[in-house]
Design goal:
alpha/beta, six-stranded parallel beta sheet, two-stranded antiparallel ribbon, globular
Amino acid sequence: MNIEGRNRPQALIFDMDGTLFKTDTLLEVVHPRVFATLRDEGLYTGETPPLDHLLACLGMLLDDLWRKLMPDSSLAARERADELLLQYELEELEAGHGSLYGGVEETLRELKARGCKLFVASNGLEHYVKGVAEHKGIASLFDGIYSAGEYGTSSKVDLVARLLNEHKLEPSPGIWMVGDRSSDVEAGKSNGLTAVACAYATYGKAAELEGADIFISAFTELASVV
């Protein structure tokens, strides 16, 4: 972790999957359900892709994710997969499945108490992203929860730019973009922000985080540098 010479943040923007939420703890039950239903409905005939393949796609827009997992799929199959993924994620969240990374809630509360504005910017579906925040008891800590599903943005760069504009935040190193994928680093750097890489997440490859300004090996490290 290296913050020498950098501004302490006035605001932090967090990715959701692989940053705040340990997504595999939810998808391990959702993933097989989605593909079983697609087969039952005649929209998919192959084997269920390994869960690791899905986890490696986290951070992508959903259409890109399904094209990667089901390269020969029809539009109808991909659209139905979107519906099933959201339905089953919300059902399993309601049932108590899925967990935050260690210390997430406590660290967010500490950052909030120190006067930082907190946001989420995710490429996921609106009701999923907000559902995680609500079911895990952290929704009230955020000044805004943004998702590609809600705003129809084509990249996280655009989503973060919209967030900054709507909350009248001037792009500066005093705003930190915190995430675990290349799309998070890109969104931070392209918008003139400090990019914080979550090296504790295992869904992507380490090379994706090249170019980040700060690396953290546990979420709780944020409290010690703000």
